[in-house]
Amino acid sequence: MAPSAMSRGKDNWIASLSETQPVPYWLEDPGKPPAEPALTGTETCDLLVVGGGYSGLWTALNAKERDPRREVVLLEGREVGWAASGRNGGFCAASLTHGLPNGLARWPGEIHRLEELGRRNLDGIEAAIARHGIDCDFERTGEIDVATETYQAWELRDWHRELQEKGLADGIEFLDADAVREQVNSPTFQAGLWDRRGVAMLHPAKLAWGLKKACLKLGVRVYEHTPALTLKSYGAGMAVRTPYGAVRARRVALGTNIFPSLLRRVRSYTVPVYDYALMTEPLTAEQLASIGWKNRQGLGDSANQFHYFRLSADNRVLWGGYDAIYPYGGRVRAEYDDRPETYAKLAGHFFTCFPQLEGVRFTHAWGGAIDTCSRFSAFFGTAHQGRVAYAAGYTGLGVGATRFGADVMLDLLEGERTERTELEMVRKKPLPFPPEPFAWTGIALTKWSLARADAHGGRRNLWLRTMDRLGLGFDS
Predict the structure, then answer these.
(1) Which residues contact 256 (CB under 8 A, 6 or more apart)?
(2) Using an 8 Å Cβ cutoff, are 56 and 49 in contact?
(3) Of 88, 185, 214, 288, which has the most beta carbons under 10 Å away?
């Protein structure tokens, strides 16, 4: 591209952000329910759930469906769904392991069982949405991983052959350049892998609000604007202190994810990584026709620094990913939710992918923290002689996997040996992150190395190869 043309293109990309509101599109929905009152005084219950995101909501709902007589209380520090559960891209995946490559690399002996459990979990989510009448724009569209470089296209073809050899390719189709552009028309697409049934698209905030409504209907007592401050043993159970009261419970399930755990020894296993997204105005019929996308799949590219993108119910394009920002010290702060330099970068990438959409404006831009662990998929455990259970580290794939994690926590609290609790994935934990400045240095070096690999044909340098050998690499 000539310098003058590049300058004009950049000016157009920046202009597309002129009317952008720095708020999550999903959370501005007019159907947002009012918050439940804060807890004042003392509550007692059989099960206390801490956290009002997907992890806590599924735990509370599944606990009541297992035993309707069980008294369940849920505490949320702000409002249900306001954090990651209301800010994500709305990709609800069957994978419990952050994708087959990661799962196959870490648990090759369990991968078939993990894939089967993941499929059953996604079916269970679809059934629960129907059973409770949750209106969250659920669409079982699947997802296409697209190659935008020649080496990525070869890697996708080789990976599909490997999946076929291992009996893991059911429902997964390789698409060459013509076939993938027939699905979604971008001049950058060179190949794709279409997982036809393993991913659904949905409205993430509506799912959280619908789960809250279902919990209330089943008798869960929900308190919002009620942060849990301390966790201590209390007789044969546990006690949690809140600003205006306390809860005494026989058992406690912690679904706080990226926020500091009430169990201090769990905190070193996760770090916050900030992810960002843009949302366009609704596409016209002509604009939508120019890119195809008739089957409305979710999409993600095959780079290490990847983008994810999808259509909303009103035909906006959500475009997110690429930058993954770790703040020094692992702090979670509201000011990190807005990052204009990343928005400008994402806008440029968007119009490179879809030049036929030049002139489209972005209406919303936002960010949020993802709870990341060193194996890039959830881990589980118990404390206080089995009276407390926790799940965390979903690394961006929690829309679907949190329901599975909820069942794991309930199994652990009930002391049951199930097909879930027998998994190596459940029984063993990832390596913790080192203290600062080593955590920041290691994450920064990894990010630099991944970007370098993307720019050099996917070749992984010594640092990445060492991380792979230590089990700290990310096989996406």
Answers:
(1) 50, 51, 56, 228, 262, 392
(2) yes
(3) 88
Specify the amino acid at residue 422. E
Is the bond into 434 cis (omega within 30 degrees of 0)?
no
CA nearest to 301, candidates 147, 168, 435: 147
424 pLDDT higher than 60 = yes
- pLDDT tens digits along 95-150: 999 999 999 999 999 999 999 999 999 999 999 999 999 999 999 999 999 999 99
From the CB of residue 419, how many other CB atoms can be counted at a distance below 10 Å?
11
Query: Strands 307-311 and 245-254, how do they pair?
Result: unpaired
Q: Of 437, 256, 243, 277, whose CA–CA distance to 346 is shortest?
A: 277
| Residue range 277-314, pLDDT digits in tens | 999 999 999 999 999 999 999 999 988 889 999 999 99
Specify whether the CB–CB gap between 207 and 54 falls below 8 A. Answer: yes
Nearest of 355, 352, 356, 345 to residue 321 by alpha carbon: 345
Give the per-residue pLDDT at 1.
Answer: 36
Residue corresponding to tokens 């008798």: 219
**pTM for the whole structure:** 0.95
What's the pLDDT at 10? 62
- As a whole number of angstroms, the distance between CA 64 and CA 118 comes to 22
For residue 173, give the 3-state DSSP assignment: strand
CA dihedral 332, 309, 122, 174 (to 10 degrees): -130
Average pLDDT, the chain: 93
Encode pLDDT of 357-389 as tens digits: 999 999 999 999 999 999 999 999 999 999 999
CA gap 155, 428 in Å, rounded: 31
Q: Alpha carbon of 93 to those of 122, 274, 389: distances in Å?
A: 7, 20, 24
CA–CA separation, 125 vs 121, rounded Å? 6
Here the tokens at position 336 are 């990190």
How would you class 179 by CB atoms within 10 Å of its CB: exposed for 0-12, middle for 13-18, buried for 19 or more? middle
Total Cβ atoms within 10 A of residue 171? 12
Contact between residue 81 and residue 52 where contact means Cβ atoms under 8 Å apart: yes
